Amino acid sequence: xxHEQMNPTIEKILLNIEKVMIGKRNVAELSLVALLSGGHVxxxxxxxxxxxxxxxxxxxxxxxxxxxxxFTPDLLPSDVTGVSIYxxxxxxxxxxxGPLMGNIILADEINRTSPxxxxxxxxxxxxxxVTIDGxxxxxxxxxxxxxxxxxxxxxxxxxxxxxxLDRFLLKMKMGYPDLAEEIxxxxxxxxxxxxxxxxxxxxxxxxxxxxxxxxxxxxxxxIKRYIVDIxxxxxxxxxxxxxxxxxxxxxxxxxxxxxxxxxGRDYVLPDDIQxxxxxxxSHRIILKSxxxxxxxxxxxxxSRVVARVPVPVRRxxx
Amino acid sequence: MVIRRDIPSFLLYVFGFLLLWEWLRPVEQLxxxxxxxxxxxxLVISFALSFIQMKWFWQSxxxxxxxxxxxxxxxxxxxxxxxSWWKAFLGDAADNLGLIVARNWNDFSSEFRTLLFFILLWLxxxxxxxxxxxxxxxxxxxxxxxxxxxxLDTFSPYNAKIAIVRTVVVGFAMMGMLTFFRILQMEKVNxxxxxxxxxxxxxxxMIAFSVLVGLAAPKAAxxxxxxxxxxxxxxxxxxxxxxxPHRIGYGEDDTALGGxxxxxxNPVFMYDGNEKNYWKMETKxxxxxxxxxxxxxxxxxxxxEDLVPVYSFPQNVETIKETVRVNAHVNYKYNYxxxxxxxxxxxNILPDDPKGNRFMIDTTNERIGFxxxxxxxxxxxxxxxxxxxxKYKAADLRVTTGYNPDEISxxxxxxxxxxxxxxxxxxxxxxxxxxxGKTNWFxxxxxVESYFGNTEFTYDQKNVAxxxxxxxxxxxxxxxxxxxxxxxxxxSMAIMLRTIGIPTRWIKGFTGGDFIKYSTENSGxxxxxxxxxxxxxWVEVFFPNQGWVAFEPTKGFSNELNIDYGTGQSSxxxxxxxPAPVKKPQQEKIEDNPVKKENxxxxxxxxxxxxxxxxxxxxxxxxxxxxxxxxxxxxxRIRGKWFPYFVLMRYRxxxxxxxxxxxxxxxxxxxxxxxxxxxxxxxxxxxxRYVDSFFSTREMTQLTASYExxxxxxxxPQDSWKESRKLWENLIKKTIx
Lengths: 318, 737
Description:
A: Helicase, Ruva Protein, domain 3, 13 helices, B: alpha+beta, C8orf32 fold, 23 helices, elongated
């Protein structure tokens, strides 16, 4: 949607990120969509393509507290959420917050760790709070998790259950940079990494305000129906074992609101839905084994579904 | 799942009703069920209630009331709110419930059967509702309906020629619609009006087309002969074997003659008259190869003391007036009365009805019925009749030598010289051989009549054949068996004369019976008793100048006619003065019938006029329709050329911002016709870019932005239509080029 005028704040954030990231504007956009609509991102990709860099740039731009958790098989839930330690001086247990108590968290290789630790993270994502030793600790706001996972076929991984995948607003792939981009990456690698010099664009207060405004982006009934049509179709599709849930519909709507806002619109277009649907829905459907054997991916199914649902071009009359 | 009540489901209900109706249609014809319309009304009510989704409780109440009311209406004289019939009905129901338990299903009362039938229909309506709206499958029911209709058509007199077409149309329409709904459901598509039309229109066209093709296409002949006559014969045979003789006394059904005639000496009636004479009951005119039927009905009412509107003798036949008093026996179980040929009027009857008696004569079969005030047919116990006995002159009878269309209307002539096409040729050959050398109809008829006096023929009531499926009744008697009773002789004579072009009809009734005693009331009168053994049939031959003249071909019987062979002179001026109403008499009389006239007059007339008009002008009309359709088609085809000008004019002066909605959609379809097709999944923005790149403008994108505001934001800036209109007009103009 290059021809559209971006929201100036968003434009600045994106430019900021582009200072350290070469290309990958769409990844940055989508991450912002998740951040602005209060969702979380699941990145499925190999190491070394710049995931950390991007998240750090994003955190810097919004002046947020950045934490990183490297998930390993022996990581314990308390390593994520924090732990109460006995303080002999005060004669009581004191809570030492874990890395989850940040604003923007990079959860690296989330499927390397045991389900128990995974669920500690996921609980935090869903509830925006963690409970340790019977005490509930509210997480900071805004709270944004960008989790990465190795492609599932790798050995030594604990695949995330579907119910937990559902917690991520969107799932995307980063992919390798193209030739020119990669040369540019090498050029920059010879200099000092500029990440430390990034100036914040807005503060956390501003970010929260943005999130509020996004909730007011108008979604017409025509669009809502379009969303429901698409989600509904995934449920009846021949290759799909389990279609997307209503949570998927909500996610699609919220993401579309954020996306529309980023492009300076206060209403959602079918274009937004079409663009976002594969990222939002593909990790929420389970394919039949026949489809898996045929090599059809969930993204393809969603694209096909989107291609089959007619775009509403006249007013929806109830 | 919530079932939506919209036009498609209404259609489904209508189709379901029509399909169920097909099951009821043959019931009236094939069983003794009457008032079938009440059941149909019940179906309509049930479907309607189900359609408007009334609570099941109220539905049941309404249906129950209807059922009870119908039963009350059918079977009870007492009013609906009177206690007496409730008691009777509940008692009857209780008895019948006992019969159910005892498995005496044959003994159910009619009320109870009706009740059960209603309940069956109720269940069927529920089932159809379930199939249609929940299962969305109707194939089994549709298939069963087809099987039902075809089986009935094959093995019963029910003619399903149109029923099968109706069923196919309805069934396929239903299946087509249901398939559509099933696909929608399976694919989780939210149905929309436009979708539905896109499916329904081709469906309707396809069904209409295939039905028309089916109707017009030549059909293969049946690969086996129609089994109905055979089954009937077999059934009759079976009955005969089981229950004894084929015919006892006077019977009303003459569709399958043959088989033994068993005597029955029970008296039928007695009469007190001057002379012994034959008694007519009815006549039949249509010979089927197996028996006789009546070609139609033409009832005419008349009153006591009126002249009986039956055509007996022309004025030039001399007659003697006679009266007779008939006393019907309790065994007399027919709904119409016996009368001597030449009946003039019914003088009086006993028991007399002071409110006036109504008689009804059917001029086609000459049955005279008597109706009491409540329209129930009944035969009075005692009848006093006046009738004429003709005195023919042989010379007058011999006048007619051939068919003359001026004397006998063609229709009448054809009716009474009808023979079945399958009648073997040898019957006619034989008739010609017998009548060789005879010049006039009377001599020919006499020759045939006396031919049966030949020793070859034997009168026998027991050892009489039934014609097989491929036999003709007359042919079998004349050439193979030569053994039979009155039916064989009379039918054979009538048919033989018909083959040589002499109009005849078949008369049924009784012979004069046996003399009992002299009358005590009227001196000189005698009293005769007629028994079932006296049931008889004979022949009447039509002479244009003499009317119907009776002949008696049966060996051993005689019906002495008063014929004067002496003078050789014909009665003076008989030919010229004969007004001989030789046109088919019932034709004129139908028009006298006020009831019939009022019923169908207007509609019939209008319809006839339409038909006439069509017949005269069909070429012009067809041409006109073709031209209109062609012009419409061409206009439609080139609408891309003229329609834009029209809409440009239309929207030029509109001011409201909302007009963008309609205008934009018109632009979309116009662009579509122009060749820039928007795919269903293409967003407007995307499409606008495509259109703009085609026209090298940015107009479409701007206009689309406006429309997007309208459509997805429901919020248009003030006066946006002014600007949008210019963009819109430019775009429309581009599509005209």
